[in-house]
Design a protein that fits this description.
five-stranded mixed beta sheet; Rossmann fold; alpha+beta
Length: 420
Amino acid sequence: MKYQAPKGVSEYFPPRSYAFEKVKESLLAPIRRAGYKLVELPVFEETELFTRGVGASTDVVTKEMYTFEDRGGRSITLRPEGTVGALRCIIEHGLDRGALPVKVFYSGQYFRAERPQAGRYRQFYQVGLEAIGSEDPALDAEVIAIADAGYRAIGLTKYRLEITSLGDRQSRAAHKVDLMKYIDGLTLDESTRARADINPLRLFDDKREEIRAMMTDAPILLDYLSEESASHFASVQKYLQDMKINFSINERLVRGLDYYTGTTFEFVHEMLGAQSAIGGGGRYDGLMQEIGGQPLTGIGFGLGIDRALLAAEAEGVVNAEDFGVDLFIIPLGDAAKTQTMILSQELRNSGHRIEIVFGDRPLKSAMKLADKNGARYVLIIGDSEIESGMVEIKEMSTGRATSISLTSLVATLAQESWTL
């Protein structure tokens, strides 16, 4: 029997896994530089954590969660998103009892029982962060700027940032009155009506064209912002403008989770078709308290690694060929193999990516292997090289060979003139 990965799983292996790793590290680097600390979280939680935290009206809860009963009879769910698990961790371990804001980040696999298609998987990968305990609009701008820096670090240019405000409790209450009056005049099926009764904003996020058409003239939440919410949103925009981060206001932006309030944002890539969102997030005032914590405000994001990789490949800014080893060493004979093992250890300790040919391959076969593995340079060591104390390093792209003494090899390769 030939086994295969489950349907809808995003799985990465060489050489494409090199590009996946580059994208992931590019997204993580700006987060670390901004002082966010790692939390490593379980891939499953108690089901109630997600039903309470994510929102009963969302497709995530009603249609997409992988839920099962464990051996103890407890209802367990594979995590469909990152925020509520991170907040549970913060509450459980008392991180919110210290200096605020609490700033954490995480990455890993997430699971949703969706219909698989390009850019939408049942197992997918995300990088996320959360900042808990500060209402400062400058923090909103920092979170957005970190995500933008991650996409720029990958090399992406063909994306846009869309922002809006979903207001505070006062704003949403005033808007809900007029929105429900509008929705009551629509002809909706029973399930859509039920979703609207739980959270009428969900209809702005509906992907069906007939619902989109019905909502064209619906009242917009931005028109109902309280003075405090409007001032906060204006400050966020000002900070983004000062940092020269381009954005547009999308007055119908909702996102797919119920917990968002206030500043909400999404990054959209123009070359990905229907699944164009590559990441987003926003504020979630009240979520901490909803799952048993203090009444602290928070803001965060989730950036899809799979989507960002597709965007990078579409723009041609990452290629598997760009991630080969620095130096491929080919030993010819037992004495050369001993010398190679010592040399490779020194070079790896110096930070170089070194690969060795094993199995006593013929030289021609070894050179083909070096080329296949994307080696930038090749070094051949045989008895004559050991006897003379001189080796030649060949640059694979140009064929240029340079003679270097074995005793000074490590020091020579550490110089700026070498690009290992």
